[in-house]
Structure formats: C-alpha cells, structure tokens
Design brief:
The structure holds 2 protein chains of 2 kinds. Chain A is mainly alpha-helical. Chain A has one domain: 3 helical TM bundles of succinate and fumarate reductases (Up-down Bundle). Chain A is built from 4 helices and 2 strands. Chain A has helices at about 25-55, 60-70, 70-100, 105-135; strands at about 1-5, 10. Chain A has a two-stranded antiparallel ribbon with strand order 1-2. Chain A is extended, with a radius of gyration of 22 Å. By secondary structure, chain B is mostly helical. Chain B has a single domain, classed as 3 helical TM bundles of succinate and fumarate reductases (Up-down Bundle), CATH 1.20.1300. Chain B has 5 helices and no strands. The chains are: A mainly alpha, B mainly alpha. The interface of A and B includes residues 56 and 96 of A.
Chain lengths: ~140, ~130
C-alpha cells in the first residue's frame, strides 16, 4: 500500500497479513465454509424454483426435471446440495447459540466445531440412506 | 454547585440523540441483523420438514405433487418456507456483497440485483405452489 510518511514522502507500507498467510484453524475454516455453503445454497434455490415452476407448468416440464434430478449429474448436485444444507444448518445453530453469548471459550468453540462436522457427516449419511431406500 | 473539574461520568459513547434513534454507524439499526437471526430460527424446523418431504417425494409424479400440495397445511408450510428462505438468502448475500465489494456503486448495484432476483424467484415459487395446491 502506498502512503506518505511524516515528511510527506511517498513510501510503500507493508500490508497486514491476509488469509493466505495464516495456518487454517478449525474455527476459521468453518466460518468461511458457512459463507461458501450459504452462497452455494442460494444457487441451489434455482433448482427448487425450477422444480416448483415445472410442477405448475406441464407434465412434460415436470418429467424433464424429475429425469434430470434422477440422472448422475442431478444426483451429484443433490448430494452437494444436501451436504451444504446440513452443514449450513449445523453451523447456523452454532451461530444462534453464540448469539446467546454461550460457547466463546477456545475449548468450547473447538468442541462445537468438531460437533458440527460430525453431525454433518452423520445426518448426510442418514438422509441419503433413507432417501435411497424409499426411492 | 456542580464540580466543573469532575463532570459526571458518562458510560455511553453515543450522544443522547444517537441513543434515541437507535442507529449505529451504518445508519440502519439492528433490523437487518435481527431479521437474519429470526429467519434462521424459523428455518430450523422448516428445513427439517422440507428435507423429510423431499425424501418422500423422490421420484414423485406430478399428480403426487398436486396431492401433496393440495393439503392446506403443506401449502401453508411451503409458503412459509419459500418466504423465509428467500428473505434469509437476500439478507445473507447482502452481507457477503457488503463485505467483499468495496466500490460503492458496484456494491449498491449488487445488493439491488440480489434483492430483485430473490423477489422474482420467491414470487415464481409462491405462484407455482398456489397454482398446484389450490
């Protein structure tokens, strides 16, 4: 960053260290992932909108999206959608707990961080086992 | 007699007018923050309900969807889910844009675009579920 010193001379000041400099602690990775999954889920609402609009439009339009969702690409999209949704759901609850000024000590937020990861894995497996079993 | 050298201690950095208005440096108050929390709280049960229904509807025909949305309770919950989801999405994406876009005009354009898209998509979803369900 270019700035002036006390004599008014232009000098190049050092920038503060940014994301790529730090080792990634769990809380930082989870915080960024919460945002990334939020943006991803926003894109995923296009799929929801398409599905509902198709259901209101015609048999042909609805069969088209049902075929797409059942295809390999559709299932992969649904898988990532479910992981993002469950993860964002778990970290979102963690944020709501924080809003009550609970769990800000380092051992607490590390434990709740791992808990969200474990819960995401377990819930994703449960959703897909039940989903594929009842398909 | 008031002591001019030791005026009464003020705990608050804000002016009395600032306190009365309830607005911080963003000039918008806490409504946006609070709205995001309220919608996330509402989305906790709604999301569980929705995922359960998506599983039930896997491979469903259009008639199945019509029967499903024909239930007034399902229709009401779907409307609640749609409104809450797109409200939450608009608020969340607004924060992301405000944090990473630093050019004032681009930021404003981005936020307005996001809000417009969210409103259009929410309306498309609402009209669709009403058309199928009613």
């Amino acid at each position: 960053m270019v700035a002036r010193n006390t004599d008014g001379k232009l000098i190049r000041r050092p920038l503060s260290p940014h994301l790529q400099v730090y080792r990634w602690p769990l809380s930082m990775a989870l915080s960024i992932s919460h945002r990334v999954t939020g943006v991803g889920l926003s894109i995923g609402t296009l799929l929801l909108t398409w599905w509902l609009v198709a259901a209101a439009t015609s048999d042909e339009a609805f069969n088209h999206i049902q075929w797409f969702l059942g295809s390999i690409i559709g299932l992969i999209l649904l898988f990532f959608w479910s992981v993002a949704l469950i993860f964002h759901f778990c970290t979102g609850i963690r944020h709501l707990v924080w809003d009550m000024v609970v769990g800000f000590e380092k051992p607490e937020y590390t434990a709740s961080g791992w808990a969200t990861i474990i819960a995401t894995v377990i819930l994703t497996v449960v959703v897909w086992v039940v989903g594929l079993a009842t398909w | 007699m008031s002591d001019t050298r030791n005026p009464p201690h003020v705990d608050m950095l804000r002016s009395p007018l600032g306190r009365a208005r309830g607005l911080g440096s963003a000039h918008a108050g806490a409504a946006h923050w609070w709205g995001l929390r309220l919608t996330s709280l509402a989305l906790v049960p709604l999301t569980v309900w929705f995922v359960w229904n998506v599983i039930r509807l896997s491979g469903a025909s259009r008639e199945d969807v019509a029967i499903w949305l024909g239930s007034p309770m399902v229709l009401a919950l779907m409307l609640a889910l749609i409104i809450t989801t797109f409200h939450h999405m608009a608020s969340g994406l607004q924060i992301v844009i405000e944090d990473y876009v630093h050019h004032e005009n681009t930021k404003l354009a981005g936020v307005l675009l996001i809000k417009a898209l969210c409103v259009i998509m929410a309306l498309a979803c609402i009209v669709s579920v009403l058309r199928v369900g009613l």
